[in-house]
Design goal:
Shape: elongated
Radius of gyration: 18 Å
Structural class: mainly beta
Distance between the termini: 10 Å
C-alpha cells in the first residue's frame, strides 16, 4: 500500500482516475496494516459495508466493483483431509 499521493506501480496517473470519471481505492483492513507482509494477523471476524452517497441523483447507472482478498491457512491431516484453519479478509 503506502501509495497515497504517489503514482507508482499501476502506470495510471491521478489525472486518468478523476478526469475520466474513474477512481480506484485500496484499503488495508488488517489490524497492523500488514497486507504486503509475510506474517499473519490474529483472526477476527466482522462485516464490511460500503455506503456511497452523491450530492445529486446520478443521470446514469454506475458500477461498483469490490475485489476482496482473503488469506487462509489450510491444514492437511494424516488422512489427507483439508481443513480451513484460519481466514483473514483483505479488501482491495
Amino acid at each position: 500500500m503506502n501509495k497515497a499521493d504517489k503514482e507508482l506501480g499501476l502506470g495510471i496517473s491521478n489525472t486518468h482516475y478523476f478526469q475520466g470519471g474513474y477512481v480506484l481505492f485500496a484499503v488495508d483492513l488488517t489490524p497492523d496494516s500488514s497486507t504486503s507482509q509475510s506474517h499473519l494477523s490474529l483472526v477476527k471476524q466482522g462485516n464490511v459495508r460500503i455506503e456511497i452517497r452523491f450530492g445529486q441523483a446520478l443521470a446514469q447507472t454506475i458500477t461498483v466493483l469490490v475485489y476482496a482478498k482473503y488469506q487462509t491457512i489450510l491444514e492437511v491431516d494424516r488422512a489427507r483431509n483439508i481443513v480451513k484453519v484460519k481466514e483473514k479478509a483483505l479488501i482491495i
